[in-house]
Specification:
It contains 11 helices and 6 strands. The protein is of the alpha+beta class and 277 residues long. It folds into 2 domains: 126 residues, Beta Polymerase, domain 2, CATH 3.30.460.10; 134 residues, Nucleotidyltransferases  domain 2 (Four Helix Bundle (Hemerythrin (Met), subunit A), Up-down Bundle). The strands form 2 sheets. Strands 5-4-3-6 form a 4-stranded mixed beta sheet, with helices on both faces. It has a two-stranded antiparallel ribbon with strand order 1-2. The longest helix is centred in the C-terminal third of the chain and has 29 residues. The chain is elongated and about 65 Å long.
């Protein structure tokens, strides 16, 4: 099963155990191409996962593969994608629970666990394809998912900004510009996600869309978008041009820009929390 570059762990119950469990169970009834037990299996699996200790960290459960395409036959694996708010921390626990469910029910399941950052927005063909034909078994409220994503992006932007300041103190101008631009762009991405679901796939696309959503509407000072565009040029020179003449003033300017973006993002997030309260 392909994962399209996304980090994934696949687990499969051995064929011997599966066959033993099937022999104990009643024969699978087939309606057309689909075994009718699949709906019951999905309901039971969903409830089993959501009632576990990590249930509140599950953002989505999606059925894909042959069952979602309606081409399954008796013996087909049940392919499940589990999207979590923190994939790395909860991955092992969830995979263990899927394994326990397989043993208990005699169902051949292949599970992939991804963090929400690998899934939202989908950045590779595998995930895009799953989004097109997959069957959503469970999902958190969309607002909750976006909130978690935006808050994590904000934290990452803060980390890049801190790193930019640290290396600038040591006179590493190129690294400071690069890290500070990353902080500013991450904050811009988070601000974009507050207004829509998709992100551009290029740096220039992020700069352009931020300008359209925030600068053109005067929601923020339009100069902020122009500064981000100039900072992108500096970042490219810092990263790719050995002979570029870059100054501490250039680096301080990008650091200040990142601080301005993060200040706006913090205000937006605080306003959203007040509205929820």
């Amino acid at each position: 099963m392909r994962s399209g570059g996304a980090r994934a762990i696949q687990i499969r119950l051995s064929q011997t155990i599966i066959e033993e469990r099937r022999q104990e169970a009643s024969p699978m009834v087939v309606r057309g191409n689909l075994p009718i037990e699949i709906d019951e299996i999905l309901v039971n699996l969903k409830e089993y996962l959501l009632t576990g200790d990590e249930g509140d960290k599950i953002a989505k459960i999606i059925l894909f593969g042959s069952y979602a395409r309606k081409t399954a036959t008796p013996g087909s694996d049940v392919d499940i994608l589990i999207v979590t708010l923190d994939g790395r921390d909860v991955e092992s626990t969830l995979l263990d629970r899927v394994y326990a469910f397989m043993v208990a029910h005699g169902v051949p399941i292949e599970a992939i666990v991804l963090s929400i950052h690998q899934f939202f927005p989908p950045m590779d063909y595998f995930l895009h394809n799953v989004m097109q034909y997959g069957v959503e078994v469970y999902s958190m409220e969309k607002g909750e998912i976006k909130k978690a994503v935006v808050e994590d992006i904000s934290s990452l932007a803060e980390e890049y900004l801190d790193s930019a300041k640290e290396v600038l103190e040591r006179g590493r101008i190129r690294l400071a510009i690069d890290a500070a631009y990353n902080a500013a762009e991450l904050a811009a991405k988070a601000l974009i996600l507050l207004k829509q679901d998709d992100l551009p796939g290029s740096h220039g696309g992020v700069v352009s869309l931020f300008g359209q959503l925030y600068g053109k509407t005067k929601e923020v000072d339009p100069e902020l978008g122009r500064k981000l565009n100039r900072a992108l040029k500096l970042r490219n020179e810092a990263r790719y041009r050995p002979g570029a003449l870059l100054t501490k003033e250039d680096a301080y300017g990008v650091v200040e820009l990142a601080e301005a973006f993060l200040k706006i993002l913090t205000q937006k997030l605080s306003g959203a929390k007040m509205e929820e309260g």
